[in-house]
Amino acid sequence: MPELPEMENYKKLLVEKIKDNPITAVEVNREKSINTSVDSFRSKVGGSKIEDISRRAKYLLFHLDNGEILLLHLMLGGWMYYGTDEDKPDRTIQVKLSFGEKSLYFIGLRLGYLNIYSEKEIGYELQDLGPEPLDINFSLDRFLEITSSKRGKVKNTLVDQHFLSGIGNRYSDEVCWHAQINPNKQMNDLEIIEKTQLYQSIRHVLAEAIQYGGYMGTPLFKGDKSTGGFLNYFKVYNREGESCQRCGAILLRQEVSSRKTFYCPNCQK
């Protein structure tokens, strides 16, 4: 499932491609991928312009010039492609937004969705999300404050979208490895110095992942050389049986609250 870095990468690239361009056609092939009737969706979206694109947690928000907002959550298996009908992937398209000769194709939206809301409704939809970990106002003091009475395993805390928004299964493992903290450790057992390192690791890992375009393996458009660049930089995720790049121990995999989790048993004690 795409996490904060992947959606931030998508946001940056799509702003360059479709911002301020009129939507010339709307195609919906799976009504369950939207939250209204196909006719209503077409009438609200078709002919409008995307004034801006923003990200909140793992969501993308397409702000239309008519005041409506498209809320995208790719969930498991969802991805996008921007291009022509000739170079698009040979995959089932759930929703297609056209911008003249090129279109934005939404693929794999079986669990994900592209819903449309008013500005008031969007606030309600996102109201339960925790703070953005890379926000300039999300300070160490704030992090120490919200973790002062936090219980539960570190792994579970990091993926809790009510606690922090945007971190999922992959980057929680990378953060724990970078901080040299075992993902099974209890939050209330962490010393201040460990919480400080955890905060710094969150910001470091996410920023680095954004820099290298996240992990999505499929390009967003023809000639896209940035998307998926972080795949080569994962230190522990999906590297069970390999040697730890820090200490040389063999990396392990286990289930933490039904989530596959990768870590080093030696330097993440």
Automatic annotation (TrEMBL):
<dbReference type="InterPro" id="IPR035937">
    <property type="entry name" value="FPG_N"/>
</dbReference>
<comment type="subunit">
    <text>Monomer.</text>
</comment>
<keyword id="KW-0227">DNA damage</keyword>
<dbReference type="InterPro" id="IPR000214">
    <property type="entry name" value="Znf_DNA_glyclase/AP_lyase"/>
</dbReference>
<comment type="similarity">
    <text>Belongs to the FPG family.</text>
</comment>
<keyword id="KW-0511">Multifunctional enzyme</keyword>
<keyword id="KW-0378">Hydrolase</keyword>
<dbReference type="GO" id="GO:0003690">
    <property type="term" value="F:double-stranded DNA binding"/>
</dbReference>
<dbReference type="InterPro" id="IPR015886">
    <property type="entry name" value="H2TH_FPG"/>
</dbReference>
<dbReference type="InterPro" id="IPR010663">
    <property type="entry name" value="Znf_FPG/IleRS"/>
</dbReference>
<dbReference type="Pfam" id="PF01149">
    <property type="entry name" value="Fapy_DNA_glyco"/>
</dbReference>
<keyword id="KW-0238">DNA-binding</keyword>
<feature type="domain" description="Formamidopyrimidine-DNA glycosylase catalytic">
    <location>
        <begin position="2"/>
        <end position="112"/>
    </location>
</feature>
<dbReference type="Pfam" id="PF06827">
    <property type="entry name" value="zf-FPG_IleRS"/>
</dbReference>
<dbReference type="GO" id="GO:0008270">
    <property type="term" value="F:zinc ion binding"/>
</dbReference>
<dbReference type="InterPro" id="IPR012319">
    <property type="entry name" value="FPG_cat"/>
</dbReference>
<dbReference type="GO" id="GO:0003684">
    <property type="term" value="F:damaged DNA binding"/>
</dbReference>
<keyword id="KW-0863">Zinc-finger</keyword>
<keyword id="KW-0326">Glycosidase</keyword>
<dbReference type="GO" id="GO:0140078">
    <property type="term" value="F:class I DNA-(apurinic or apyrimidinic site) endonuclease activity"/>
</dbReference>
<dbReference type="InterPro" id="IPR020629">
    <property type="entry name" value="FPG_Glyclase"/>
</dbReference>
<keyword id="KW-0234">DNA repair</keyword>
<dbReference type="GO" id="GO:0006284">
    <property type="term" value="P:base-excision repair"/>
</dbReference>
<feature type="domain" description="FPG-type">
    <location>
        <begin position="235"/>
        <end position="269"/>
    </location>
</feature>
<dbReference type="InterPro" id="IPR010979">
    <property type="entry name" value="Ribosomal_uS13-like_H2TH"/>
</dbReference>
<keyword id="KW-0456">Lyase</keyword>
<dbReference type="GO" id="GO:0034039">
    <property type="term" value="F:8-oxo-7,8-dihydroguanine DNA N-glycosylase activity"/>
</dbReference>
<keyword id="KW-0862">Zinc</keyword>
<keyword id="KW-0479">Metal-binding</keyword>
<dbReference type="Pfam" id="PF06831">
    <property type="entry name" value="H2TH"/>
</dbReference>
<protein>
    <recommendedName>
        <fullName>Formamidopyrimidine-DNA glycosylase</fullName>
        <ecNumber>3.2.2.23</ecNumber>
        <ecNumber>4.2.99.18</ecNumber>
    </recommendedName>
</protein>
